[in-house]
Amino acid sequence: MADVIQLLPEYLANQIAAGEVVQRPASVVKELLENAVDAGASQVQLIIKDAGKQLVQVVDNGAGMSPTDARMSLERHATSKIRSTEDLFRIRTLGFRGEALASIAAVAQLELRTKQREYDTGTLLLVEGSQVMSQQPVACPDGTSIAVKNLFYNVPARRNFLKSNAVEMRHILDEFQHVALANPQTTFSLYQNELEVFNLPAGKLSQRIVALLGNGYKEQLAACEEVTPFITIKGFIGKPESAKKSRGDQFFFVNNRFIRSAYLNHAVLAAYEGLLPRDTHPFYVLFLELDPKTIDINVHPTKTEIKFEDEKTVYAIVRAAVKQSLGIHNMAPSLDFEGDVNFAPIRPLRSSGASHNSFSDEYRPDALSAAAAQAASPSPRERQPDRFAPQDRNLPPRPTDQAKRDLEDFYRSLGQTALPDIEAEATDALPPSDDALALVETATPELPLRENQAGPGSKVIQVHQQYVLVPVKSGVMLIDQLAARERILYEQYTQALEREGGASQTLLFPRTVTFSPADFAVLREVTDALHALGFRFTEFGPHTIAVEGIPADVPARDEKELFEGLIEQFRTHAGPVKLDRREQMARALARRVASVAVNARLSEIEMNALVDRLFACAVPGYTPDGRKTLVLLELDQLQAFFTR
Fold first, then answer.
1. Which of 19, 244, 307, 447 has the fewest C-beta atoms under 10 angstroms from its C-beta?
2. pTM of the entire structure?
3. What are the φ/ψ torsions at residue 268 (nearest 5 degrees)?
4. Which contacts (CB < 8 Å, 24+ apart) does range 304-308 have?
5. Distance (Å, rounded) from C-alpha 590 to C-alpha 489?
6. What is the secondary structure of 189-208 as a DSSP string?
7. Which residues pair with 250 in a beta bridge?
8. Per-residue pLDDT reduced to its tens digit, 443-472
9. Beta-carbon neighbour count of residue 32 at 10 Å?
């Protein structure tokens, strides 16, 4: 039998290796920027055309290469960073594998110009598909310029796999941010389709953060520093009030290399425990310096995952450093053990003989600020009268028997047989939320009633302001009101997307919202879907939009928070399968709007409307991502609980 194992040709081996290193234009940007930094450049320029599909060019003023080094740099496993096995355990450079340029040259047309300072001329190399087409001397400035043209021109399947320009540009911006943040001492600039996007002069880390992520961080940065024999932590964290709905502005660097670590992110969140609003994420840029022997960065070709020798100690120190920074900047409660604990007794705000709405002489408004007076007033829940206590004279009089009979006749004329408990409504019920009222107002009376309705006299009950208990003929049904709202809103939004125009409420005055570059790139991806849902906005400067209208059924809230929440949910809750962009946006908006009225107290009319609208949905039993909206307990199951 003839031999069947053969050595792969060099060009084919390079294409196979390129599949691991070069996944999209952003991979090329990352490798070229890191090479520029390793070359000691003080100025780095990134030029992008057609989201990197047509051109990715990096120009630096670093050390440059000799003609021989320029040719050798395109060979696989050719590097100046390591020489022996021991060098793998003291890596300080960003690159070390010697695969990047060879992999890029295998799937693109590459033009390399480089010159060392001590030489009068430089070298020009033209490469196509790993084949060196020409090498000749050329006049060029000191440093290196690498232009990668027509990426994946010889791998059409991979080129067709690339996403839209907005998606690819977002990934490029992410890689640019990582390298620019890690090297504030270097000047960086970014040009997209001949337009300047960033021009970042060399400076301090705080200046680089503000220049890269926006002026909104100028007043929100808190320095974080901890030095131990094992690890050094430096950087900045954000104040709790600056937390955003999106989690994009979170950066860890280990020995100046950007990494992703859910474990360390948990350490930071643990330090912020109790300080952040619900579903928000803090900002941080933290640099960790360790002995290279205690980490392993040779885990993944992208080098964004590393292994720590003692990760528990790293976790504890990161958490302690962030918590200490929060305490130093008075953003976390601290205990004062030297203070006087013998507090003066708190005197009541009202004298015993004062009327119901008046303060005593000692606490008149001239001695007490309006803010304190407002804080001192009881909350609506505290103002609820005790139904077993004597009736207060300020309450309205009880309805007479004749008035009750007249009201019963009125309800019968409307088709309702059950009369609400007027006294309980007057003394015990809270006013319904605006979101719940909006839900009832948009309910159509033509919708069919739920099946298995228990008949006259049945009454829905709200449990812990989270669930709705509905009696039915076969037992009882328990509905998750948050999940039910999400299903109702999702189907409403999908219908609006099919009509290519959802109802919109126009704002009295347009409001501007500024985003980070990464968030703005995501916003561009979903602009069409947002317009179809009823959002009305136009671009209003760099990374800024002017919001003119929002969907009619979306509660009036902070527009920036609304958009950030949608962007974050679009990023992280797309589901386990690939979904259409409009499908993702309908899910994200439904989840976002439904969560606004979480734990809202509903009246009986609102609960009935919620149940009826749920059963008018195409799939009433599940949310768009597969969570249950209701649970049905059969009568025999209830009897089994009592062993009947």
1. 307
2. 0.63
3. -65, -45
4. 304/258, 304/259, 304/260, 305/259, 305/260, 305/261, 306/254, 306/257, 306/259, 306/261
5. 5
6. EEEETTEEEEEE-S--HHHH
7. 284
8. 333 333 444 444 444 578 888 888 888 888
9. 26
